């Protein structure tokens, strides 16, 4: 892409800069080099710890300290996934494109996943993967919500009753011409909203929705954080 002329060359808008990074493949290159640098660092630490020494206790203590330091670093990285706002860079345009293929694009293979080496890499993966696989995550939420309704028949009845209630309101509005009487229309809408809230609350529709949101959010965060960045051209080519 080409940036608009800027005589002073002071700044580039963040969306344009991120789009340029995405189109040029620098995000994937940055993700790959970050993982490679972390792997080489861990390998050098392991080789230095494996060097024979006169004091075996020092070797054991250094290995133990390195293990707990690595474990603590990974726990901090995983916990940082919970502090990320995954929808901060998501826009409506991300849902307008084609859905990436599920096998080659969304799931990939074993080599498509790796543990993020830092919180910054995890944040970059989450933001970028959610933009690329937004339609896949939306489909997963629909599937999880359908499963929740299947396991909670009362919630399914409540959802269908709410839809039937608003269809009845639409039929009555068209039949009795509520548009000509704004006060009656406003009063009827208030009654319908109260009745819908009662149905959704007492028939546990909100519980089914909450469970589907919790499961889909957990799957989305873990998948986006551990999924390596793949060039967008490969995703479209795999279709």
TrEMBL record:
<keyword id="KW-0812">Transmembrane</keyword>
<dbReference type="GO" id="GO:0016192">
    <property type="term" value="P:vesicle-mediated transport"/>
</dbReference>
<keyword id="KW-0472">Membrane</keyword>
<comment type="similarity">
    <text>Belongs to the PRA1 family.</text>
</comment>
<protein>
    <recommendedName>
        <fullName>PRA1 family protein</fullName>
    </recommendedName>
</protein>
<feature type="transmembrane region" description="Helical">
    <location>
        <begin position="137"/>
        <end position="166"/>
    </location>
</feature>
<dbReference type="InterPro" id="IPR004895">
    <property type="entry name" value="Prenylated_rab_accept_PRA1"/>
</dbReference>
<feature type="transmembrane region" description="Helical">
    <location>
        <begin position="209"/>
        <end position="226"/>
    </location>
</feature>
<dbReference type="GO" id="GO:0016020">
    <property type="term" value="C:membrane"/>
</dbReference>
<comment type="function">
    <text>May be involved in both secretory and endocytic intracellular trafficking in the endosomal/prevacuolar compartments.</text>
</comment>
<keyword id="KW-1133">Transmembrane helix</keyword>
<dbReference type="Pfam" id="PF03208">
    <property type="entry name" value="PRA1"/>
</dbReference>
<keyword id="KW-0813">Transport</keyword>
<dbReference type="GO" id="GO:0005783">
    <property type="term" value="C:endoplasmic reticulum"/>
</dbReference>
